[in-house]
Amino acid sequence: MNNYPFFEVEKIPAQQTAILYLNRPEKLNAMSWPFWRDLAPVVEDLEKEPDVRVIVVAGKGKSFSVGIDVFDFFTAFSETIQGGTPEKRGEFYKLILQMQEGFSRMARGDKIYIGAAHRHCIGAGLDLLSACDLRLATKDTVISLRETKIAIVADMGSLNRLPRIIGQGNTRMMAYTGRDFTAAECLRMGLLSEVYDSQEDLMAGALKLAAEIADNSAATVTGTKKVLNFMEDHSVEDGLKYVAAWNSAFFNTKEVQDVFMKTMARKQEKK
Fold it and tell me: Fewer CB in 10 Å around end: N or C, the chain?
């Protein structure tokens, strides 16, 4: 893999898992420009890794992420952000689309992404978490869709993805208030699947979950994600046709057939 200054990748070949660490602990993983520039490429690299099926997304140090590094961002792009000409507005629009791409690449990718948040998951940290397939956290995690507090309409994915995860009511509560929510509150909403006592327990739980997922057929897990993603903006009827097309195309692959035959053999042994 290429080297990306904001990220550290740790592979666990025996579990067909990788950990994608945010690696700016001295700033509580505040997302400076290298994060936005390199997230899509590092995700693309991981998507191409044949021995990686599941990626755990975590933060080094004391926090998952306190969100975008506002000072760094405005320093780097002040002319683009503040420029009043149509050209500058166009540049800013393209910059936003570029920044969105890393999260979108995760959401539509073939791999499964498990977000593992601890202590702080603020603003763009929540955008990152909501782009994951599954989300875990420590019990002391504070989660906030805080953009309204700094006069920004959240534009990195939370407003688009959260309603499908926690519903319109909970999303609007988070977005309109911009306040901090506890891990317990987010667990009740359905934003989190599990809450752990410590960061050590969190990572152990995330890796155990990753191993459980990676133990299944890669083609089947990928197909399941594709069908679930398809259902986000299609009818049940269209979804049934989509999954029928998927299975008719992929059921005769060697991997799927091998798993199917082993399952049938185990059932025969139990009789």
Answer: C
Can you give the pLDDT at residue 80?
Answer: 84
In a domain, 171, yes or no: yes
| pTM, two decimal places | 0.92
The sign of the dihedral angle between the CA atoms of 34, 36, 40, 43 is positive
CATH number of the domain encompassing residue 253: 1.10.12
Q: How far apart are CA 56 and CA 9, in angstroms?
A: 10
Place of tokens 């901090």: 180
Same domain, 184 and 72: yes
The gap between the terminal CA atoms of the chain, to the nearest Å, is 48
CATH number of the domain to which 99 belongs:
3.90.226.10
Tokens representing residue 88 in the block: 């500058």
According to DSSP, the residues that pair with 86 across neighbouring strands are none
Inside any domain, residue 57: yes
> DSSP string spanning 219-242?
HHHHHHHHHHHHTTSS-HHHHHHH
All residues at 6 or more sequence positions from 206 whose CB lies less than 8 Å from its CB, including other chains: 56, 58, 114, 116, 136
Rounded to an integer, what distance in angstroms lies between the CA atom of residue 22 and that of residue 13? Answer: 20
Span 84-135, pLDDT tens digits:
888 888 988 999 999 999 999 999 999 999 999 999 999 999 999 999 999 9
Alpha carbon 131 to chain centroid, angstroms:
3
Sort strands 17-22 and 134-138 into parallel, antiparallel or unpaired: unpaired
- Centre a 10 Å sphere on the Cβ of residue 227 and count the other Cβ atoms it contains: 16
State whether 235 and 109 are in the same domain.
Answer: no
Question: Within a 13 Å sphere around the CA of 73, how many CA atoms are in the beta-carbon half?
Answer: 17
The residue range of the domain holding 237 is 218-270
